[in-house]
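Here comes my example:
=====
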Amino acid sequence: MNTGQKFSGLSARQQGLRAMLLGSAATVFASSPALAQDSEELAAASSNQPAIIVTGTRITNPNLEQSSPIQVVGQDEMDFRQATNAEELIGDLPGIAPGTNNSVNNGSNGTSTLNLRNLANVGGATRSLVLLDGTRLVPSTIFSETDLNIIPVALVERVEVITGGASSVYGADAISGVANFVLRRDFEGMEAAMTYGITERGDGERIRGDLTLGANFDDGRGNAVLSIGYQEVDDILQSSRTISQNALFLGGQPVGSGTTVPTRFNGLQIDPAGQTLVPQYNTFNYAPFNYFQTPLERWNIFGTARYEVTEGIEVYTRGMFTNSTVSLQLAPSGLFGDPFALPLNNPFLTDTQVDQICASFAIPIDPVACTAARNAVDPNDPAYLAPDVIINRRLVEQGPRATDIVTNQFQVWGGVRGDLSPTLGYDVYATYGESQRTTTRTGWGLKSRIEQALEATSTTTCFDASNGCFPLNLQGGGPAGTNIDPRSVAFFNQPSGFTDTTSLLQVNASLNGSFGETGLFTQTPIGFAVGVEYRDYTASRVADVSAGTQDEVLGTGAPAPSFNGQYDVIEGFAELIIPILEDVPGFYNLTVEGGIRVSDYSNTGTSVTWKAGGSWEPFEGFRFRGIYQRATRSPNIGELFAPVTTGLTPLALDPCAGAGPVGNAALTAICVAQGAPAATIGLIPVPSAAQINQTSGGNVNLDVEKSDSITLGLVATPPQVPGLVFSVDYFNIEITDAITQPVPGDILVPCFGPNNDGAGSDPTACANIQRNPINGSLNGGGETPGLILQLTNQGTLETSGIDFRVAYRLPVSFGSINWDLNGTWTDELLFQASPASINRECVSFYGQNCEPLTPEWAFNLRTTVSIDDIADISLLWRWIDGMTLEPLDGSFGNTLPEYASVDDASYFDLTVRSNVSENFDVTFSVQNLLDRDPPNVSSFIGSSSFNSGNTYPTTYDTLGRRYSVTGRLRF
């Protein structure tokens, strides 16, 4: 930090460059800008804090132009948004795809994450880096994701976002870009704020309260700040919105899940009278139990202090702690088509039902043996039989499945910074953080106890009575009501869970400054930064026996076995920004820049990242800029060491299910080769709840992935039109050797052909599909691997497009009118999991292989009327281009035309902010002002993480019109 440098002696040219840089950081590249005065406020504040670090470089000289476009969300924009957490500050900006947030219920890990350019979620990878004042935060998950919930929003001054690769500056994880949350510095006084929000339907209440105290001491040589915050968000159930009250299939009919009540045995369902088995006649509507808004409670504490020991030496420290609880809820658990050893002498089954079960197998059980087994006394009887039967039964008696995710995270920093000379500064710091996330499940049930409860000698006695076993009656659940005894529920309804712990130790030492007082041919000197950095990551999972065992916890999909991993890295980095020409005809400014980082990873060896770029301003106010960056990303601990398990992946239609293979010899041969018994052809069940099994996990042989990105653009602030800002930037990011796993279509289409008729040409793809050995489906327990979707370095990703921004501030007699349009046109978003896979285009498409969604066009337009220092009236218009169902040539079957495409969507948010007094202001907002409904696309087109409640709640507003008010008191 160059604390000794002063600006009073700068030339007019240098002052102009400085003002332009600060304006760029605060407004020129703003995605959703603050009011125009923010740049002036930032410049004024900076006169006492000369070392301005702009995201994307470690060089602190404020006179130097940067070649990378930076998007900025300023203080006023944050006030208008009245955000509960940091994700809400930037999550709906063009160019940022939805990550995990409180709109994700089935598939959430309790975090809010960042996804720049929609490159972060492919293969579960983390390609976006989140910083706090330019330093790293402890990862919140085993896949190195940073939970935006831990950011102290009350202290954020602005958010700077740079896309297109920043690994040469910040290291791995920055392939798609960086979001840097810049905190206020030298806060003095007291600020108390309270926010309350509620939907027009009267649900989903939101409360946020913050108290911040700060003081300077010892004549300004020191400063200390303490901020305490509390946030609470109430749930919104899908049952409370018309669109999501029924789970709709592709043809528009309510379908729900095949795991229902009464019970099904090998596909045959107990008739309403409870005497025989008949073809399945109903499904279970799981939709009403799910959340559109997941509840959250969070406490956070943040403190920071600095002290200038002597001129040129300042010590500083900071610390943060967050405690949060996120609650998730799903429909009641069940016996979801796993094979269960069902004793044929079960006392609750009728003789007719047992006979039908014996006859339902691909190779039926001999009737004589079946009758003898029916009359067996206990498991020691020679005639006793307990064949593996596919059982589907929704355990409605347990109530909904509940999951609580409790996170405790802390991080501390300590360092020393200052000046070695008027042109050379230094910064040395260390930080250590830990995050502990405990997941507890209740209302799910344990498979081993179901098995134990099925072995009953009577309707009240288990053969094995240990642990309080009480027999399980699978007979009921029809129109007469539920029949499972509460004592049986108490026996198998046991909690389970696991704890993930991650840590980060980082040590960084850097020098930054300039070579002399002037450059080679310019008044502005050459800027540089050099440094070294060490990072050590650990991650572990400790699971209880049930959570870590495949198939043991009913309805969970994949288990969560215990494991641990570690790696470290040491890096050296350097940057240069060189002014070439300035204040000459045709070259008001010409600057080039470069940077390099050499990284030595304990797991993947040495890699090099670098950048090269420049900017040319032929005359004042018009600047061309461009930068090329080579970035790398080393695999994280989850990608390396997570155990291989069998879980779930979305699939609406299985080519082998139903009558499709009948009469088609090629298709039949493929299905049988994948493990389907020949006798099941024509009878294979459709995917349960549009989900099938997948087997995947970590891969210790993974290597680094590489990225090449280029950004070319123009930014104009013409002096002839004061208040006008225009920028346009082309971006292209290509990732090779990408750490990815195939999506379902990458396996199914090469195997079965584009029309699902068996005309595929890739036997390797077919070998990566393994079916249930009993009924031929892709569902069941761990005995059914389903699709083999392992991580490799064979993938490629590419995205390109144009970012644009037009802003104008018009002074008027009563204040000003401000317009700010920020948008993105995405030309392509290509994903190829391997050379043999489809090179899939996902721009403007939705479906199981293209999530989250990337519209071709998206923009935000904010119009703000400022009435002197009295009030601001601001309208935000967010527009999303129309989208269509991904073209998979029949893979979605007979989809309703209205589900096959959605129109463009406009959302309007109106905000009024008033300065009630010198120390008190009030902000009132109406979000989704026109109460626009989300589009209906059914619940069977994509994954349950993003396609939920018959729509895409992370992209489209499902809550409806809602109101929020914030009061803020300052002294």
Remarks:
- Residues 12-28 form the longest helix (17 residues).
- The chain has two domains: 12-238+293-331+404-440+499-635+704-743+791-970, 636-703+744-788.
- DSSP finds 13 helices and 42 strands in the chain.
- The radius of gyration is 30 Å.
